[in-house]
Amino acid sequence: MGWRTTSRSKTGSRSTSFPRRRRPSRPNSCVPARDSPRSAKETRAAGLRGVLGETIIQFPVADAKTPGEALIRAQAFIKEFEHDTLITPAVAPHAIYTNDTQTLKNARMLSIQYSVPTLIHAAETQAEAMTAQERGSPTVVSYLESLGFLGPGVLLAHGVWVNDSDMALIKMRGVGVSHNPESNMKLASGIAPVKAYLAANVAIGLGTDGAASNNDLDMFEAMRTASFLAKVATSDPTAVSAKTALQMATIGGARALGMDKTIGSLEPGKRADIIIVGMSAARQTPMYDPISHLVYVTRGDDVQTTIVNGQVLMRNRKVLTLDRAAVLRESRTWADKVRAAVRP
User: Fold this and answer.
1) What is the DSSP-derived secondary structure letter of residue 61?
2) pLDDT on residue 34
3) Taking phi first (over 0 means left), then psi (-120 to 50 degrees means alpha), and beta for anything else, what does residue 240 get?
4) What integer is the mean pLDDT of 122-141?
5) At residue 298, what are phi and psi to the nearest 5 degrees?
6) How far apart, in whole angstroms, are the C-alpha atoms of residue 168 and residue 200?
């Protein structure tokens, strides 16, 4: 099991914001994969950019029976891809409630040793605080701080249940946050204090989380939902404007991952990761404000062309690096296997 953050092509979607799931049009997101090396090779073959992490978790999973085995796999994965132009390897301890203290420390030490990102679910639900309290800290963030875990390169997925002291620690330590509004709504996890994060100048990006808790992985919907949710949560119609939501989905995500020097915006010297979006649909007509339309009207299937690292991956809705029919056919085959496996 691993985490991945990938560019997407057909939908302009991105899975972030931090930890959970995949598909092709933009840089920066986070999610688990069964086999990180294989996922990385497939991602690279498709021409996508990905921040991919080997998940560290306390119980046996398909690719690692123990946390120690997972850490060994993570180290091998980092060594294999540490100089790759498209793949950024990461270490992904799942959460504090699925790892003990020493495993969390070891995972963070591995990230520091190789200067790669650390991806972790944190403060997603109120119940997580109980684990922190059992270990002597009042909150998830303060517990991670007590371990020396927080620092540049750490990405907290969700960050819903935080207080002012937590937010100050996140800012002081240079930690990034991945906001996943649709997942938080579907799972009734709560509402992240996005307006406060932004006011504190915390590096916050936007993501979809995984298919199990989001379903369509459409970053345009994530932008729209993040904007609307912040407004209703704060009773402030100006909270998280369309421009701010777009920034969170682009340069904000890159900043949260510590990659804003190379991706996240169109600037000389940065990598050419670009999507071209059609704006002529009936629901997009008339258009007065392009940014407002991108966030409040546009959908993932309005993406016409995707370019990653200067390579055209999709042109006029035709994916050039993947066999669309074969991918869908294999997906349906696996769906049948899953249904059979879980059938009573």
Assistant:
1) B
2) 52
3) left
4) 97
5) -75, 150
6) 8
Domains, in order of start, for the chain? 2-270 (3.20.20.140)
Tens digit of each residue's pLDDT (9 = 90 or more) over 56-82: 999 999 889 999 999 999 999 999 999
Backbone φ, ψ for residue 243 (5° rounding) = -60, -40
The residue whose two tokens read 């996943």 is: 180
In contact, 157 and 19? CB cutoff 8 Å: yes
Give the DSSP H or E segment for 326.
helix 324-342
Distance CA 147, CA 142 (A): 9
Place of tokens 């369509």: 216
The string of DSSP letters for 24-83 reads: SSSS----EES-HHHHHHHHHHTT--EEEEEEE-SS-BTTBSSHHHHHHHHHHHHHHHTT
The interaxial angle of helices 67-81 and 101-114, nearest 10 deg, is 10
- Crossing angle, helix 36-45 and helix 67-81, to 10 degrees? 30
Strands (DSSP E) contained in 151-302 are: 154-158, 176-179, 203-206, 274-277
Which tokens go with 120?
């972790």
